[in-house]
Automatic annotation (TrEMBL), chain A:
Protein name according to UniProt: Succinate dehydrogenase/fumarate reductase iron-sulfur subunit
Family of this protein: Belongs to the succinate dehydrogenase/fumarate reductase iron-sulfur protein family.
InterPro entries listed in its UniProt record: 2Fe-2S_ferredoxin-like_sf, 2Fe2S_fd_BS, 4Fe4S_Fe-S-bd, Beta-grasp_dom_sf, Helical_ferredxn, SDH/FRD_Iron-Sulfur, Succ_DH/fum_Rdtase_Fe-S, Succ_DH/fum_Rdtase_N
Organism: Spirosoma sordidisoli
Keyword field: 2Fe-2S, 4Fe-4S, Iron, Iron-sulfur, Metal-binding, Oxidoreductase
TrEMBL record, chain B:
A cellular-component GO term for this protein: membrane
Protein source organism: Spirosoma sordidisoli
Membrane-spanning segments: 16-40, 60-83, 110-129, 161-182, 203-225
InterPro entries reported for this sequence: Cytochrome_b-558, SQR/QFR_C/D
Keyword Hydrolase tagged: no
Keywords assigned by UniProt, alphabetized: Membrane, Transmembrane, Transmembrane helix
Gene3D superfamilies for the chain: Fumarate reductase/succinate dehydrogenase, transmembrane subunit
UniProt-listed NCBIfam families: sdhC_b558_fam (TIGR02046)
Protein name, per record: Succinate dehydrogenase cytochrome b subunit
Length: 252, 231
């Protein structure tokens, strides 16, 4: 396949970037999108040019590292898949493909297609955990959890924190990510004890990081590689409003 | 009271303000539409004028009307605050974006639709509300009692084809705004349930986004056709 690439090149966060065109002639339709970038970087290395920086790790859709905005969509034209799970057969011979980094105030560009997603880590640090001593493993049936509840929590826990929800949202809102992290703990008995302060703190941190508000366009859920449902956003809204109305935290 | 101000200034709190004012304005539309159906009565405007008299003299209605004006202002101002904040959340825009692949148009353009509606509301209130309260409206007499003849003002306004067109187009904007807004209001409040969400969506999509704007749009068209002797 012949592919025309327009890739965002940016030296660092302080330098303005621009789209640079590249042409690749021998691309196999069976290559993954990232392998196509490996080919590009191989050619750039041969020419002595600086390679395109992009995030990647597991390349099997579970680490959440890869983060490309491809032809106007987070993780490209497929739904329910990450960039590494996208294959060149999804494109036609001679296509022009525009590749940009996630764009959000809270995700500053580090270089080219690599953005700093540590804002997500700080949101998790604010309350996305259960503070108990783990000790030795408990008996599996000690705390009874209905299967449907466990499934619902697992659906939320499928979030890999890639940031596609932020990238796809017109407001660069992190509501789907934060709500998945609130949800996965809020509906399980282990997480219930701290559910009020968790919702309050994680939403406060989300706001402090500079993410936008939710317009309920649904773009996040469509572009989410794990197809996380908007139900979780509603649950977080309930958790947050309930906490604000009933918690004993009068300072805010 | 730090928790109150902090809650209301959080991104979720701001959306709750949008939701509550928006849902209140939606319920107002039902009353406004139902009342204005008097325009379809072929009695020379008597029912309409009597209804107008009631609406401007009943103390409960007058109280609620101040809540209504406040809601419109708060809804519009909070939308401005949110739009600025949301826009600042992505300082560098995408060179190429395809949002139509993942979200409905109305959901992404509530601000534009809302601006159209705000302009419409100003024009609408200048034509009828301002005339009724501060303008010189001719009087009509029914059973020896004097009424302001707002129906006469309605007839003059809707005799103009461009004014009718303005109303019809604005009602299309109402439809799109509510198609997204009504169900979003519930999502913001966390009201999402497999039993009730489909009902909320149906009510939003068919009643608020179609029946209500269609009934409103029918009023100027009906009066226009009547004034010009077509009906």
């Amino acid at each position: 396949m012949k592919i025309n690439l327009k890739v965002w090149r940016q030296k660092n966060n302080n330098t303005p970037g621009k789209l640079v065109e590249y042409q690749l002639d021998n691309i196999s339709p069976d290559m993954s999108f990232l392998e196509m970038f490996d080919v590009l970087n191989g050619e750039l290395t041969k020419k002595g040019e600086e390679i395109v920086a992009f995030d990647h790790d597991c390349r099997e859709g579970i680490c959440g590292s890869c983060s490309m905005y491809i032809n106007g969509r987070a993780h490209g034209p497929q739904t329910g898949a990450t960039t590494c799970q996208l294959h060149m057969r999804s494109f036609n011979d001679g296509d022009t493909i525009v590749v940009e980094p996630w764009r959000a105030r809270a995700f500053p560009v580090i270089k080219d297609l690599v953005v700093d997603r540590s804002a997500f880590d700080r949101v998790i640090q604010a309350g996305g955990y259960v503070s108990v001593n783990t000790g030795s493993a408990r008996d599996a049936n000690e705390i009874l959890i209905p299967r449907t509840v466990a499934d619902e929590a697992m659906d939320a826990a499928a979030c890999i924190g890639c940031g596609a929800c932020v990238a796809a949202c017109k407001n660069a809102s992190a509501m789907l990510f934060v709500s998945a992290k609130v949800s996965q703990l809020a509906i399980l008995p282990q997480g219930k004890a701290e559910s009020q302060q968790r919702a309050e703190r994680m939403v406060a941190q989300m706001d402090a990081e500079g993410f936008g508000a939710c317009s309920f366009t649904g773009a996040c859920s469509v572009e989410c590689p794990k197809s996380i449902s908007l139900d979780h956003i509603a649950r977080m809204n309930r958790e947050y409003l309930g906490a604000k109305l009933t918690s004993d935290n009068v300072q805010g | 009271m730090a928790w109150v101000t902090q809650t209301l200034s959080s991104s979720l709190g701001r959306k709750v303000i949008m939701s509550l004012t928006g849902l209140f304005l939606s319920t107002f539309l039902i009353v406004h539409m139902a009342g204005n159906l008097q325009l379809f009565k072929a009695d020379g405007g008597r029912a309409f004028n009597e209804y107008t008299y009631f609406m401007t003299h009943n103390p409960l209605i007058i109280t609620v009307s101040y809540l209504l004006y406040t809601s419109i202002l708060v809804h519009a101002l909070m939308a401005l605050v949110l739009t600025r904040h949301n826009s600042a959340s992505r300082p560098v825009k995408y060179a190429y974006s395809k949002p139509e692949a993942n979200s409905p148009w109305a959901s992404r353009n509530m601000g534009i639709l809302g601006t159209v509606l705000l302009v419409f509301i100003i024009i609408h209130m200048r034509t009828f509300w301002y005339e009724m309260h501060f303008g010189s409206v001719p009087m009509a007499e029914y059973d020896g009692k004097q009424y302001k003849d707002l129906y006469a003002v309605v007839k003059v306004a809707f005799a103009e084809w461009w004014y009718v067109l303005l109303y019809v187009l604005s009602m299309v904007a109402v439809g799109y705004h509510l198609a997204h807004g009504f169900q979003s209001g519930f999502q913001t409040l966390g009201v999402r349930h497999p039993k009730y969400t489909p009902i909320i969506e149906t009510v939003g999509r068919y009643f608020f986004a179609f029946i209500i704007p269609a009934a409103f749009a029918a009023m100027p068209i009906y009066v226009f056709l009547q004034v010009h002797g077509i009906l």
